[in-house]
Amino acid sequence: MTREAWTLDWKAVNTPLGLPGQSQAVCVRTSFMPLREGLADKPDEVRFYAASPAPDQFSPARLIAAIRDHWGIENRLHHIKDRTWLEDRHWMGNKRTSAVVAMLRSVAVGFVLRAKGRAMKNRPHCPARIEYFNQNPRRALRMLAQPLRL
Fold it and tell me: Residues 102-121: pLDDT tens digits?
C-alpha cells in the first residue's frame, strides 16, 4: 500500500459546492498492491478534504497530520468494536438502549486493551483476549477492582 497526498489552493479548484471559508483542498490517494499472485487488484482510493486554515497557517504536512489524527479514533476504537463485537451488524430500535450498549462496548474495549498476559496476542481485536477473560473470570474481576492509572 502506498499513499500520496497533495494540497492546493481552494480557489483553484473552482468548485460549485459553495463551501464558505474554505481556503485549501487536500487530496489523498491510496494505492494497493496485491500481497500475492492471483489476488485481484483493488482500485485506488481517492479522498478529498476541504480545510479552512490558510496555506500560511497550516502547511501541507500539518494538514495531512490533522487528517490522520481525525481518523485515529476510527482506527483505535471503532475498528476494534466492529471487528471484535461486530457492532456495525447489530442495530436496535431504541436510541437510548443503543447508546448505552455502544458505551458499554467502548468500556469493554478499554478493559480488554488494559489486559496483559502471555496467553494474549498483541492485536487488540483478537478474540483470544476476550476468550482469556471467559476462561479466567477471577482475573477480570481483579482487574475491575484495581484503581485506574491514567
Answer: 888 888 888 777 776 555 55
**For residue 40, how far is the Cα from the chain centroid?**
25
Secondary structure in 3-state letters for 45-97: EEEEEEECCCCCCCCHHHHHHHHHHHHHHHHHHHHHHHHHHCHHHCCCCCHHH
pLDDT digits (tens, 9 = 90+) for 43-80: 888 888 888 887 788 887 888 888 888 877 777 788 78
Domain segments of the chain as ranges: 2-58, 85-145
- Element holding 144 (H helix, E strand): helix 137-145
Instruction: Output the nine-digit C-alpha cell for 47.
Output: 479522498
